[in-house]
Amino acid sequence: MNLPYEWQIGWRYTRAGRSGRRNGFISFISAVSMLGIALGVAALIIVLSVMNGFQKEVRDRMLSVIPHIEVYSAQGTALEDWQATAEAARKNSEVRGAAPFISMQALIARGEDMRGAIVRGISPAEEASVTALGAQLRDTTFARLKPGEWNIVLGVELARALNVVPGDKVTVIAPGGQVTPAGVVPRLKQFNLVGTFESGHYEYDSGLALIHIGDAARLFRVEGPTGVQLKLADVQDARRVASQLVGTLPPGLTVRDWTRVNRNWYDAVQVEKRLMAIILTLIVAVAAFNLVSTLVMTVTDKRADIAILRTLGASPRSVMGIFMVQGALAGVIGTLSGVTLGLLVAFNIDVIVPAIERVLGVAFLPGSIYLISRMPSQPLAADIVPIALVSLVLSFLATLYPSWRASRINPAEALRYE
Fold first, then answer.
1. 293: domain range?
2. What span, in angstroms and rounded, lies between the C-alpha atoms of 231 and 238?
3. Are residues 167 and 215 located together in one domain of the fold?
4. Where do the H-state alpha helices sit in 348-380?
5. Dihedral sign computed on CA atoms, order 305, 307, 309, 311
6. Would you state the pLDDT for residue 236?
7. Among 59-63, 171-175, 261-265, which is the least confidently predicted range?
8. Could you give the CA distance from residue 83 to residue 66 in angstroms, rounded to a whole number?
9. I need a labelling partner for 417 at 20 to 30 A (CA). Which of 10, 130, 131, 309 fits?
10. Which residue has the higher pLDDT, 182 or 154?
């Protein structure tokens, strides 16, 4: 090979060490260091991939009910011209759909049972362009939401809490009241339950009711839609697009993306993911710095070789380079092995986990307890590349001190007892 001799000797030291009790032990310690790096990198990739998978599952279920972005009046009143607002929003190339809505908090009662809920007035035909639930139920359940018929669709958990089934009647109690000579009387309206929906997200299944936008306007006494729902080409760009819309839409409008609507959940997931990455990176760091002990033992074992190289004209810098190459190669081999193992498990976790469950006779995600019965996984390059780079950097840093010590060995002192 036409490589510098530092590279050739460093590679030879990495492969050597199989003969002799001492050399064999050094080789074993080196292999353990590489294995530790590989397992640490693999664990980090697998855990973050599973966290990404869970986040995607929850996000997709959430966004099957709510839009990516909501635009509404800052005063909470009806928009003067929601079509003009929707048209202005569509000028952004990321916007793929728009639909009007009216959203208010209300109480829903059935007999002695009463629950608070968000009552959302929608246009069934246009809802299909902004939410997956609207597209799924447009021709079935949502087709029964007709203006003036006072029909309602409840989340499955909300219907269960009220102990109602399709065909029953529920009473919606609107906020505010009607002033009469006898005092303030709550506004009540009886609705026909024509269906339920199940998004898989408990918050919405237990606290959301859908009615026709015309009925909502009459019930809540507003002159028209209070906002416009938007669907984007890429849900991950919601914050950026929302910021752009603030500058392009008419003044007096509030723009809120789904990460703001669910701020607590979104921020908690991000913090948890960062903390988990830091904790698992420490595992990689411990494994990487095991290279220090390996290289120190190698330098001690190769003192005579170092002295001979120095007497042949090798500079301290070259000697340092030899052991840096040896340590860096161990880090590269460990990192690449870890990335390969991590990706192999992450892409096949839906096969591996069920196999482990069958062997152990347990269910890690019982369907009766968790909404998700399978282990999701979503490896992302944005996670994998930084993991590999951090592992390589830590491995490189671990080689500096032992390599520097090797370069400081005095040839005469090293050969005195040889």
1. 5-60+266-415
2. 9
3. yes
4. 349-360
5. negative
6. 86
7. 261-265
8. 20
9. 10
10. 154
Of 225, 221, 222, 196, whose CA–CA distance to 209 is shortest?
A: 196
Please report the sign of the dihedral spanned by the C-alpha atoms of residue 13, residue 14, residue 15, residue 20: positive
% the chain with pLDDT above 90: 28
CA distance 171 to 219: 12
Same domain? 349 vs 239: no
Residue 365 reports pLDDT greater than 80? no
User: How many residues are recorded in the chain?
Assistant: 418
What's the structural domain count of the chain? 2
Exposed, middle or buried, 139 (CB in 10 Å: 0-12/13-18/19+)? exposed
Domain match, 236 and 186 both: yes
Torsion angles phi and psi, residue 29, rounded to 5:
-60, -40
Classify residue 410 by its DSSP letter.
-
402 shares its domain with 282: yes
Domain assignment present for 119: yes
Identify the residue with better confidence: 154 or 403: 154
Q: What is the pLDDT of residues 2-25, one digit of tens each?
A: 667 666 776 676 665 444 445 566
User: Structure tokens of 308?
Assistant: 């001979």
Domain shared by 292 and 317, yes or no: yes
* Residue 90, domain member (yes or no): yes
pLDDT tens-digit readout, 323-361? 788 788 888 888 999 999 999 999 998 888 888 878 888
- Closest by CA position to 328, among listed 285, 405, 392, 404: 392
Asked if 103 and 78 touch (Cβ cutoff 8 Å), the reply is: no
Burial letters for 305-334: b for 16+ Cβ neighbours within 10 Å, e otherwise? Answer: bbbebbeeebeeebbbbbbbbbbbbbbbbb
Residue 410 lies in a domain: yes
Q: What is the mean pLDDT of residues 296-307?
A: 75
pLDDT at 403 over 90: no
Return the top range by mean pLDDT from 5-19, 161-175, 252-266: 161-175
Q: Where are the beta strands (DSSP E) in 86-126?
A: 95-110, 113-122
Is 178 inside any structural domain?
A: yes
Q: Does the pLDDT at position 302 exceed 60? A: yes
Under DSSP, the state recorded for 295 is H
Question: Do both 290 and 383 map to the same domain?
Answer: yes
- Indicate the SS3 state at residue 118: strand
CA 108, CA 225: separation in Å to the nearest integer? 21
Does residue 220 share a domain with residue 179?
yes
Together in a domain, 29 and 104: no
